[in-house]
Design a protein that fits this description.
Elements lengths: L11 H10 L5 H10 L4 H6 L2 H5 L6 H8 L7 H10 L2 E5 L7 H4 L7 E6 L7 E5 L6 H16 L3 E4 L5 H11 L4 E4 L13 H9 L1 E5 L11 H12 L2 E4 L7 H11 L3 E4 L10 H8 L3 E2 L3 H7 L8 H6 L18 H13 L4 H8 L3 H13 L3 E3 L5 E3 L6
Parallel strand pairs: 3-4, 3-7, 4-5, 5-6, 7-8, 8-9
Antiparallel strand pairs: 1-2, 2-6, 10-11
Length: 388
């Protein structure tokens, strides 16, 4: 337990806002600080530099930045500007902070928001290239409309192209949508989306972890992309080249244990190359929303607990034989998971001595047949139905 002096007293939400705004402190360092101070942002700001440096891997620069936070950020001014925008800051400690986002290891300690985040809705991201085709725009709008009509909230980045089409599809279906910005929530980017910005703020939310006035740059967009992945149960890539920002989001989604879907396109179309690459690497090919519910049935209006209660998670030493696994590769993958009790993709590949593509395909087949399940942390475990 870290002892701190009570030199300053801050409102809890303001304390989180200050810490969120400071430079020289990454999300992992911030998580270490919060853990050391039992989640109390006010105590972090009241600590001395020496007390902060006692925490493992908290560097001198980060400690001095916190102690001298007034040099970097004016919270009273920020709160006044945010109030004028009819926005608010949602701290990690707040009840309405998105639960899924809070589960990722590098979760932001707060979000700026204009509009309302409905945490009762399940979020699905639809993202893609700015250099899209008409096919891609049509697919993005249709998927967003279909999912909105089924009660989902569509998350995207309000960029040109696929992102904008996804938001528009959700709004056309009178659904909710969240735009995650790589800049401050008061900065409309691109400016051509000013009308869309207004509609989203009235029928969902504009969110960002960046302070007001912050402009987008090459660093902010990858940071933003982890929020898109973290907010959602699944991420759909409609069009992307192999090096697009959507591929970064897909990588974050995979790391966070989120399901990644990719829409197939023409093999000679550059905007399809990223999606085709994702499918080869194990992402689920998506042709309609029913594909989502086949892979993630709990999203289809069925409570997750109801599905899990129909499965008997028995100890390994009581597992019945599984004669229906006739494929030797699938059997080998299943045996690795059973032996390890739970295993991520890397571990299965290592212990099975199989090519990654074969392991991915086998994992998909085993999960579809109800023999294994993928947890939110990305690990796989045995999920046999009680056959006795």
């Amino acid at each position: 337990m870290v002892a701190v002096s009570e030199r300053h007293v801050f409102a809890e939400r303001r304390a989180f806002m200050i810490l969120n705004a400071l430079p020289n402190i990454g999300p992992h360092t911030m998580q270490r600080l919060l853990a050391a101070f039992h989640g109390d942002a006010r105590r972090i700001l009241s600590a001395t530099a020496d007390q902060l440096k006692m925490i493992p891997r908290v560097e001198t620069l980060a400690a001095e930045t916190i102690v001298n936070h007034r040099k970097y950020f004016n919270p009273e001014q920020e709160e006044a500007l945010l109030a004028a925008l009819r926005g608010r800051f949602i701290a990690m400690a707040d009840e309405n902070y998105p639960k899924l986002l809070g589960e990722i290891p590098d979760a932001p300690i707060g979000l700026y928001a204009i509009g309302e985040i409905d945490n009762s809705l399940k979020n699905i991201a639809i993202i893609g290239s700015r250099t899209n085709t008409l096919y891609g725009l049509e697919i993005a709008r249709k998927l967003a409309m279909d999912l909105s009509n089924r009660g989902f909230c569509i998350v995207s980045g309000m960029a040109r192209g696929i992102d904008s089409a996804a938001h528009e599809g959700a709004l056309a279906a009178n659904g909710k949508t969240i735009a995650v910005f790589g800049n401050g929530v008061d900065v409309i980017y691109p400016m051509e989306n000013a009308a869309l910005y207004k509609k989203i703020s009235e029928n969902g939310a504009i969110v960002s972890e960046f302070t007001l006035g912050r402009r987008a740059d090459k660093q902010t967009f990858p940071i933003r992309n982890r929020l898109i992945a973290g907010l959602c149960h699944a991420v759909i890539i409609v069009e992307s080249d192999k090096f697009g920002g959507s591929m970064i989001t897909a990588r974050f989604a995979s790391e966070y244990g989120r399901h990644v879907f990719a829409v197939p396109g023409r093999i000679d179309q550059p905007s399809s190359s990223g999606c085709l690459s994702l499918i080869r690497e194990g992402a689920t090919m998506l042709t309609c929303v029913e594909d989502i519910f086949e892979d993630l049935p709990y999203l289809c209006g069925i409570p997750e607990q109801k599905i899990l209660s129909s499965v008997d998670f028995m100890p390994i030493n009581r597992m019945p034989q599984v004669p229906q696994i006739s494929c030797p590769i699938e059997r080998k993958v299943f045996d690795v998971i059973a032996d390890e009790k739970s295993a991520n993709l890397e571990s299965v590949v290592k212990h099975s001595d199989l090519p990654p593509n074969s392991v991915v395909r086998s994992l998909q087949m085993l999960e579809m047949r109800g023999l294994t399940r993928k947890r939110y942390d990305g690990a796989f475990e045995v999920a046999l139905r009680n056959a006795s």
